Amino acid sequence: MPVDLYCHIVAPFCRSVILLSEALGVELNYIEVNVLKKEHLKPEFLAINPQHCIPTLVDGDVVVWESNAILIYLAEKYGTEGKKYYPDDVVERSKVNRLLFFQLGTFHRALSTYYYPIIAGIGEGKPEDFRKVQDAVATMDRFLDGNKWLAGADLTVADFSLAISVAALEGAIKFDLTVYKNVNRWYQQCKQEFTKFEELTRDASERSQEMVAALRQYKLDEINSAREPCSSGINNNNDPPPPKPPCPDSA
User: What's the number of CA atoms in the CB half-sphere (13 Å) around residue 118?
Assistant: First the structure.
């Protein structure tokens, strides 16, 4: 029976789940959720995931969200002896966990902080934020020194997680990975190892143009709405108040 995955191909975290599912042979039923159209706020999705984020995985009665948590779940439930991407040994597992925290708390945070103003059309990336991106990649380069994969000799969920982050880095800001020899070698290796990696990256790139345009319009509407005169909600003519933001002191 297929496992339901609520996702959008443009979202990098969704693609890491798809790649691991392919590696494990887990059949997925894709259910596209467009957050810019606020489909994640529909009652039927909120009933599944009150945090209303994607990706969200539904496997029978089990519901898992947060991409790295999904990766661990899939690896633990569907991993086999030849495809055990989350180690049983507690010490080895701690290395993988550390890398997953690094991916979300350091690498992705640095990339999104720098790139979001650019993609949203609301400003330029700051030089100091770009240096944090460089620092994150340099740190990852040191992790890979002497290692085939991020956690050592074996491929793990950490590689699936960070490979998509690096793909976003390369595609979004045309980051020169060749300066970081270990990361570049590892990334080329990931492209060869992961089934559908190139296909997913290409599809995401093609659809991202549509999403970027929608995001910029969304932010423009948000900015224009904030510039409208506020309304206290008080109306002496008993007419319905206009749909404007409330004054800070009228709550």
Answer: 13
